Amino acid sequence: MIATRKCSSLLVSASVVVLLAACGSDDNDFTQEPPRADVNLDQLAGTWFGTFDDKSTVRTFEFTVDAAGGMTGVKLEGADQGLTGSITKATEVPRAFRFALASGGAQIATGMMMVDPAGAHMLYLNEHSDFGVLQKGATGPLPTYALTDIDGAWSGDTLQTAPDFTTFAHLDSSAQCAPTDPAPPDPTSQCTAMIDSVTRVISNVRMDDPAGRGRFISTFTNDPAVPPGDFAVMRAYLSPDKLFAAVWACSDFRPFSTGSPEGCDFSAWTKTQP
Questions:
Q1: What whole-number distance in Å separates Cα of residue 256 and Cα of residue 233?
Q2: Of the four, 77, 97, 134, 240, which is 20 to 30 A from 140 by CA?
């Protein structure tokens, strides 16, 4: 997990500012954001649509949330999964929630959700490392995605979590992405991110899903290296409107592939500049 170093000006309650602006750094041209609002449980009410990745296939994903946090109508590729769930607010960090899913009354999965300050986009992660991105009010079909959709400036939250989602560590984060080799047949982009005080260079960003469903794969290095010699795998998933990225980044993919989030962090980024 990333070792954090907080600046004193970041020690505020629910409203936070981008780390670079708080610390006065101009190493990267990231734009300061206004304070970001927290999101309450009732703001999740509505129908959510996006994609779900079970570590192999990206499928469409949708469910409905009521004002009390009840989940119904969970569908993959339009097929109802017969699941119900409940969502609770994570009070110790902003814009984060915990959930439990059940089938026939028996719990089958727990997990976490992260949303943007508008409560309009969501990162989804369960205990099996199934990962998703959703947009409230969106409907299918999915759009056509391109590598250039990842380019631009992004900003938001990063969380680290224990395997049972009982504890969270919150970090401010941002990223700037631009093409490095835009020419076919294998175009790539590169991003520079700030995860709290850690600079992350994200290399060889490329479209990963053959169906073109908004999954991007890359490698990354951290400076300072966490742990020393860190070289890792990262994936980003874009919402249907392409304005929100749900991201996981793991220093070693193997534990995550078996359901452990240790050594990983999870980012919910809103696009701030094209």
A1: 11
A2: 97
